[in-house]
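The protein record quoted in full:

***
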Amino acid sequence: MKVRSILLTLYAAVFLPAMAWAGGGLSNGVVDKIYHPYVLPLEREFEWRFMSRQNDSGNSLVQRLGYGQSISEHITLEGYIIGERDQSDDFGLIAIELEARWMITEQGQYWADWGALFELDKQHDEDIWEFTSGVLVEKEFGRSSLTANYLVEYEWGSVISSSFHTEFRLQYRYRFIPEVQPAIELYTGQEFVGIGPSFMGVHRYDRQKQLKWEVGFIAGLNGDRKDHTLRMSLEYEF
């Protein structure tokens, strides 16, 4: 049974990424949060995310502020406001987002834990929409965890051509201690492959109160082109 679980997980990690190249254009931010398929009953959280990407086109900086809470034992909803620095170094609102996560299986019920992600984005000052859906998979091996996200994005609006994009995200994490957990992350999308280290941890307070942190540096493997991203996030759950 253990060998079968390992083979199925390796299949998901090795062969499904190739399917991600079958999509259309590249989203502006392939490197982002890697989602876990878990929902805590009665959870509420505030979240802040920061991403700085440097490539041949310049340096982009995006921040997100969000609030979310579970509406059942298996589903949680979260809303975000998204800001970005423009070419004049002014920081302003660019989009709003509504996100839903669904915990499909109970933790440890099957060979891997499964969930689903749904996101709807609307550009602030233009008629541009984006809908994302995807599968979230996580498998634990002792102190190690392997997490994969398979995402399909559809963009439409009056000022852009409708198009599909696909992305794949993979994270191997070693749970050294709750406060410090090193990881390696892989991101793919059309014309982009990136890999790099990350660190994360959680500090627990009373009952369900806890603070989670993450920081990662992802370097693009796109030939001679410079393309790297620094990402950070804080989540306070209560």
In short: The chain is about 5% helix and 60% strand. The chain has one domain: 2-237.
